[in-house]
Amino acid sequence: MDYLPVFMDIRGRSCLLAGGGEVALRKGTLLSRAGGRLVVVAPEVCAELRELVEARGGLIHERPFADADLDHMALVVAATSDNAVNHRISELATQRALPVNVVDQPDLCTFIVPAIVDRSPVVVAISTGGSSPVLTRQLKEKIEQTIPAAYGRLAALLGRFRSRVKSHITDFNLRTRFWERLLDGPLAGMVFAGREKEAEEYLLAELQRGAAEERTSQGEVYLVGAGPGDPDLLTLKALRLMYAADVVLYDRLVSPEILQKVRPDAEKIHVGKRRSHHPVPQEAINEQLVRLAQQGKKVLRLKGGDPFIFGRGGEEIDRLAALGIPFQVVPGITAASGCASYAGIPLTHRDHAQSVRFVTGHLKDDEVDLDWAHLAREDQTLVIYMGLVGLPNICTQLVAHGMPATMPVAIVQQGTTATQRVVIGTLDDIAARAEDESIQPPTIIIIGHVVALHRELAWFNVERDAGDA
Ligand code: SAH
Q: Which of 135, 154, 143 is nearest to 116 (CA)?
């Protein structure tokens, strides 16, 4: 972020506006809409600006800017046509640590004024940090269209009941849930249709219910797949629950970009941390889920990929089901599909692979213990999770059971993330290549003729970069 977005309270405070033309008028209008008291300094002041200042009880000094004009100001806007004056104001204001904006000269500003969608008390401020005014305008139009004008009335109504709700429902989490339920229900529709009285009655009835619920609260667990890494691969349902949860338990496969999308004030607990190479034991996680839900919390268990594919999701909900704790399971894009798509490898293909198998390459007693005879078939694709350490063993076994040593193999490291790497080889050389390239987990290994179809990797990067521009 290049700028810190803040909303500043200037009600009743003096704001210096240097300049008396069109541009100054525009800024002056904005400042006075936010309750600022205008002090205008300019050799000439246009009639409209004069009217505005007089109507709002401000001051006009019809003369050139003087250094002392900055005294007792809360904020400074320079909108003169004289570059030297604008520079001088910026320099002096900065010396005094006064927030200063020089119109259209970001390098002279300590704050910039965003584009605004005003549904007071709801205000949306939009900025592209000066990179693209056209993009800013387009975003503003989109937001203008999505937020009905009546949102202001809705927010005002909620504001009127805020302290009452706070004293009726004292538990923070329950209160948040109360507001969420209210806003998901018919209340907004009533306000938008102008039936405010009805909306207030509805709110009061719901408040009774919310207060009653506080005495018998029950938590809930969401077991949610976060996908393989790229936050754009989250499902809409995952996003919604990430915003609804009070507490989040996540493991090491959940990328920081995804974690950022969790509600900021939710408690975040890392349960995948490797303590002396041992993650938090599964039983301890199961117990923690139960304990938090029993405290009445909405608990999000966020897992890499899909919770039911090598994710031990089944074990986590077993305990919950036995204890009658409500839960939901939300599927995610599993690493196999994410990595295959982003590396340009189709997992099945009419001519090359009629089926695909997901297997774990986890070592037991230094061996990968799998049904090799069934895996060594040529007409299927094998996708191996957790297979990097066992890779030499896997390749040897497949060849020993009849797979050609020339069978193509792909390793996808940190698939779908900005740091994705792909190494391609064959059963007889892939282990050596992985070592040469210092490939690190997490990796997905794809074995089969489909690997030969992979697109040029440049294609993947070009696509992604273009998307970010
Ligand atoms: N439930 C997860 C898998 C968990 S097992 C899923 O559905 O994807 C952990 C293994 O998943 C890792 O060892 C690795 O083999 C694979 N994996 C997960 N994310 C990955 C990624 N972004 N790139 C490559 N492999 C990944």
A: 143
